Amino acid sequence: MKTFKLGGVHPEENKLSADKSIEVLSLPKTVQIPLSQHLGAPAVPVVERGEMVKTGQLIAKAQGFISANIHSSVSGKVTKIDDIIDSSGYRRKAIVINVAEDEWEAGIETTTELLKTPIIDDSKLVIDKVHEKGVVGLGGATFPTYVKLMVPDGKKAEYLVINGVECEPYLTSDHRLMLEKTEEMMVGIQILMKTLKVDKAIIGIEANKPDAIEYVKAISVKYQGITVDPLKVMYPQGGEKQLIKSVLNREVPSGKLPIDVGCVVQNVGTCFAVYEAVQKNKPLIERVVSITGKSVKKPGNYLVRIGTPVSELIEAAGGLPEDTGKVVNGGPMMGKALNSLDVPVTKGTSGIVIFPEKESMRPETLNCIRCAKCVSVCAMGLEPYLIAVLSEVGRDEEAEVEKVMDCIECGSCSYICPSGRPLLDNIRIAKQKVGQIMRTRTS
């Protein structure tokens, strides 16, 4: 069975909510919609305090090329535009709306039962629509999708690679989407294929989702050029470069992008969002989020409006367990602990994992024993122990030479380290500093 060849680990999967169908979470009383929930520049508000807005209405406009529009996920009154604490723990600008009766912006098709075909076969129109509706990558990076669809001059897309891997332990939102919104996902893939002018799309799904592999394969027969590749279970196979290596055996060089080897990668959730944006004129105002954990009473997958407090998601899953030690936004490998349950769900929120106290404590940090386990599991071929040390002593220029910016922050090094060293933490710090150095050079 296919997989990538360099590094990788296999953590305990804990897919506790894999058999839980998607439920629609009820609307909260208030939403906080951040202006920066995508890679790139924050959006700029186009509404004012006191203004009444409708569900799906544009409330903040993209600023610059790498940015994304923000739409209201509810109907109601804008009570303030102010700084809030988001999932990063920092204060960032957001639009706060008191929720009223759900009234949708005109022109948005809200029916979910019927599949909307035929597809729009106009690349420019699709790219404009995806841009207008604020669609971003839902696999975690939240890169504006329309930018990926604009193939640079001199480059050519040969394959569309669809990420249905969901290799993070615990998370199951993509799994359920593939089972419950399969036809919509397929139409989204067709739209992307037409836009990129490719005739082959490959959906990579890990072998721990046999029901999804079987069902998506059966449906894909109806759609020309779309195939399914079952993949060996291996983390971090959901990384773009690792997935391309797994399904096509193509190597994306250091500092290069998937398009440099003829590929464009999109997440299954993004394909569904593209379908809704292009076929139904619907902005990205909600997404499927897993809420799970070993002590959670009702682990599940919920369709959640953007801006909903995480606390409401936890209540839907039976409330916060008494033995809770940590609440993590995302999966246990790449996710980050929350310092408040009032932070909002954003476009990049794939899951909330609640860990009991006994699993939340960091191990004692010991001296590095030079075992090189972190080197052996690094899927990017780096030396994590070395970059982490360079970060600790402030030798950022040397960290750049060691290709710290190639790190995909998968956390495999920290996971495998027998000395409990916070390798990923230090590497993330180094990436921030090196990124600042690189921006200074080009300014």
Summarize the structure.
With 443 residues, the protein is α/β, with parallel strands linked by helices. The chain has helices spanning 123-132, 145-148, 173-180, 182-196, 210-220, 240-248, 268-280, 310-316, 357-360, 373-377, 384-392, 396-401, 412-416, 423-442, and strands at 22-24, 30-34, 44-45, 52-53, 58-61, 70-71, 76-85, 91-99, 159-163, 201-206, 226-231, 263-267, 286-292, 300-305, 324-329, 336-337, 351-356. Strand 10 (201-206), helix 5 and strand 11 form a beta-alpha-beta unit.
Fold topology:
Blueprint: E1 22-24, E2 30-34, E3 44-45, E4 52-53, E5 58-61, E6 70-71, E7 76-85, E8 91-99, H1 123-132, H2 145-148, E9 159-163, H3 173-180, H4 182-196, E10 201-206, H5 210-220, E11 226-231, H6 240-248, E12 263-267, H7 268-280, E13 286-292, E14 300-305, H8 310-316, E15 324-329, E16 336-337, E17 351-356, H9 357-360, H10 373-377, H11 384-392, H12 396-401, H13 412-416, H14 423-442
Parallel strand pairs: 1-14, 9-10, 9-12, 10-11, 13-17
Antiparallel strand pairs: 2-8, 3-5, 4-7, 5-6, 7-8, 13-14, 15-16, 15-17
Oligomer: single chain
Poorly predicted ranges: none
Overall pLDDT, averaged?
Answer: 96
β-strand amount: 15-25%
CATH fold node name of the largest domain? Rossmann fold
- How many separate helices? 14
Strand-pairing-aware structural class:
alpha/beta
Physical arrangement of strands within the biggest beta sheet: 1-14-13-17-15-16
Describe the largest sheet. 6 strands, mixed
CATH architecture of the largest domain, please? 3-Layer(aba) Sandwich
Question: Any idea how many domains?
Answer: 3
- Radius of gyration (CA) equals 21 Å
Shape descriptor = globular
CATH class of the largest domain: Alpha Beta
CATH superfamily of the largest domain: NADH-ubiquinone oxidoreductase 51kDa subunit
Distance linking N and C termini: 47 Å
Helix content: 25-40%
Q: How many extended strands? A: 17
